[in-house]
Specification:
Order of helices and strands: EHHEHEHEHEEHH
Mean pLDDT: 96
Shape: globular
CATH topology: Molybdenum Cofactor Biosythetic Enzyme, Chain A
Number of helices: 7
Strand content: 15-25%
């Protein structure tokens, strides 16, 4: 088992303002720590492209997290800009991750087709957008969590077997 360094980024106006508790971000931390990984960075920012970009850059380039898991900002609301901001700061898309999450989530709710979450690679960091609710985060992360160690190995130049 690899010891992965995880960053968690919650994108939510109400949570950033302290008007609501960040249960989805805390759920991510709980789930990754249960795997023995380290949650080394945790940011809560408003649904704002500049704030999201600053956190993506800091966690990827300064904190050097292996995996950056975002929550929130993936819907159709006018301030939901996490997917666009993520891709603007990635060198490569990793579309299979978002496709798998949406496909599995459709088994639970038809509303999953409205999620615009993306995944991409920034340097040696894999960034995965997850939905904003705690329930959806738990369901979505369960779809991909077993592949994250292998993804990190591949980004480091190995693990292609």
């Amino acid at each position: 088992m690899a010891l992965l360094r995880i960053g968690v980024l919650t994108c939510s106006d109400s949570r950033a303002a302290g008007e609501a508790e960040d249960t989805s971000g805390k759920a991510i931390i709980e789930l990754v720590e249960a795997r023995g990984w380290l949650a080394v960075a945790y940011h809560v920012v408003p649904d704002d492209a500049e704030a999201i970009a600053r956190s993506i850059i800091e966690m990827s380039d300064v904190e050097e997290v292996d995996i950056l898991l975002t929550t929130g900002g993936t819907g159709l609301g006018p301030r939901d800009v996490c997917p666009e901001t993520t891709l603007a700061h990635c060198e490569r898309r990793v579309p299979g991750i978002a496709e798998a999450i949406r496909a599995e989530s459709l088994r639970v709710t038809g509303r999953a087709m409205l999620s615009r979450g993306e995944a991409g690679q920034r340097g040696r960091t894999l960034i995965v957008n997850l939905p904003g609710s705690e329930k959806a985060v738990r369901e979505s992360l369960a779809v991909v969590i077993d592949q994250l160690e292998h993804a990190v190995d591949m980004m480091a130049g190995g693990g292609h077997a």
